Amino acid sequence: AASYDGPRHDAPCAFPKTGQMTEVMARRVAHNIAADIRGGEKVSGKRLSVTCIADAGDSAFYLSADPLLPPRNRLIHKKGRWAHWLKWAFEKWYMAKLRYPFLGLGR
Questions:
Q1: Rg (alpha carbons) of the chain, rounded to whole number
Q2: In whole angstroms, what is the distance from residue 107 CA to residue 101 CA?
Q3: What is the pTM of this model?
Protein backbone atom coordinates (compact mmCIF):
# COMPACT_ATOMS: atom_id res chain seq x y z
CA ALA A 1 0.00 0.00 0.00
CA ALA A 2 1.14 3.52 -0.78
CA SER A 3 1.81 6.00 1.97
CA TYR A 4 1.65 9.81 1.87
CA ASP A 5 3.37 11.96 4.49
CA GLY A 6 2.83 15.34 2.79
CA PRO A 7 0.49 18.15 3.80
CA ARG A 8 -3.24 17.48 4.14
CA HIS A 9 -5.71 18.83 1.58
CA ASP A 10 -9.32 19.97 1.80
CA ALA A 11 -10.61 18.01 -1.20
CA PRO A 12 -12.90 15.09 -0.27
CA CYS A 13 -11.24 11.80 -1.15
CA ALA A 14 -13.26 9.07 0.57
CA PHE A 15 -15.70 8.39 -2.28
CA PRO A 16 -15.49 7.51 -5.99
CA LYS A 17 -15.15 10.45 -8.34
CA THR A 18 -16.64 11.03 -11.75
CA GLY A 19 -14.41 12.26 -14.55
CA GLN A 20 -16.00 15.69 -14.27
CA MET A 21 -15.21 15.89 -10.55
CA THR A 22 -11.65 14.72 -11.17
CA GLU A 23 -11.12 17.50 -13.72
CA VAL A 24 -12.53 20.14 -11.35
CA MET A 25 -10.36 18.89 -8.50
CA ALA A 26 -7.25 18.85 -10.72
CA ARG A 27 -7.90 22.44 -11.85
CA ARG A 28 -8.31 23.56 -8.23
CA VAL A 29 -5.13 21.78 -7.14
CA ALA A 30 -3.18 23.33 -10.03
CA HIS A 31 -4.60 26.76 -9.17
CA ASN A 32 -3.65 26.37 -5.50
CA ILE A 33 -0.12 25.20 -6.34
CA ALA A 34 0.31 28.29 -8.53
CA ALA A 35 -1.17 30.45 -5.74
CA ASP A 36 1.39 28.99 -3.30
CA ILE A 37 4.23 29.79 -5.69
CA ARG A 38 3.01 33.26 -6.66
CA GLY A 39 1.46 34.23 -3.34
CA GLY A 40 -2.05 34.43 -4.78
CA GLU A 41 -5.45 33.55 -3.36
CA LYS A 42 -6.40 29.87 -3.11
CA VAL A 43 -9.75 28.31 -4.03
CA SER A 44 -11.67 25.92 -1.76
CA GLY A 45 -11.72 22.23 -2.57
CA LYS A 46 -14.56 21.39 -0.20
CA ARG A 47 -17.62 22.39 -2.24
CA LEU A 48 -17.90 20.14 -5.27
CA SER A 49 -20.88 19.63 -7.52
CA VAL A 50 -21.25 16.49 -9.58
CA THR A 51 -22.83 15.62 -12.91
CA CYS A 52 -22.80 11.99 -13.92
CA ILE A 53 -24.37 10.01 -16.76
CA ALA A 54 -23.93 6.27 -16.14
CA ASP A 55 -24.68 3.81 -18.92
CA ALA A 56 -26.62 0.66 -18.05
CA GLY A 57 -26.87 -1.31 -21.28
CA ASP A 58 -29.91 -0.05 -23.19
CA SER A 59 -30.73 2.45 -20.45
CA ALA A 60 -28.81 4.90 -18.27
CA PHE A 61 -29.22 7.30 -15.39
CA TYR A 62 -28.42 10.97 -14.93
CA LEU A 63 -27.33 12.36 -11.58
CA SER A 64 -26.64 15.96 -10.69
CA ALA A 65 -25.99 17.17 -7.15
CA ASP A 66 -24.79 20.49 -5.75
CA PRO A 67 -22.92 20.24 -3.53
CA LEU A 68 -21.98 16.57 -3.71
CA LEU A 69 -22.02 16.06 0.05
CA PRO A 70 -25.20 16.80 2.06
CA PRO A 71 -26.84 19.13 2.86
CA ARG A 72 -27.59 19.71 -0.82
CA ASN A 73 -29.18 22.65 -2.55
CA ARG A 74 -30.00 20.59 -5.66
CA LEU A 75 -30.32 16.86 -6.42
CA ILE A 76 -31.58 15.38 -9.69
CA HIS A 77 -31.63 11.62 -10.31
CA LYS A 78 -33.45 10.29 -13.37
CA LYS A 79 -33.28 7.01 -15.30
CA GLY A 80 -34.31 6.20 -18.85
CA ARG A 81 -33.31 5.44 -22.41
CA TRP A 82 -32.94 9.18 -23.07
CA ALA A 83 -29.99 9.24 -20.64
CA HIS A 84 -28.29 6.53 -22.73
CA TRP A 85 -28.50 8.81 -25.78
CA LEU A 86 -27.43 11.81 -23.69
CA LYS A 87 -24.29 9.92 -22.65
CA TRP A 88 -23.64 8.92 -26.28
CA ALA A 89 -23.95 12.54 -27.46
CA PHE A 90 -21.83 13.86 -24.58
CA GLU A 91 -19.09 11.34 -25.36
CA LYS A 92 -19.01 12.45 -29.02
CA TRP A 93 -18.81 16.14 -28.00
CA TYR A 94 -16.17 15.52 -25.33
CA MET A 95 -13.91 13.44 -27.58
CA ALA A 96 -14.21 16.04 -30.38
CA LYS A 97 -13.28 18.75 -27.86
CA LEU A 98 -10.12 16.82 -26.95
CA ARG A 99 -9.16 15.85 -30.51
CA TYR A 100 -9.86 19.21 -32.14
CA PRO A 101 -9.22 21.98 -29.58
CA PHE A 102 -9.06 24.61 -32.32
CA LEU A 103 -12.83 24.24 -32.89
CA GLY A 104 -13.53 26.03 -29.60
CA LEU A 105 -16.01 23.45 -28.33
CA GLY A 106 -15.52 24.42 -24.70
CA ARG A 107 -12.99 24.43 -21.94
A1: 17
A2: 9
A3: 0.58
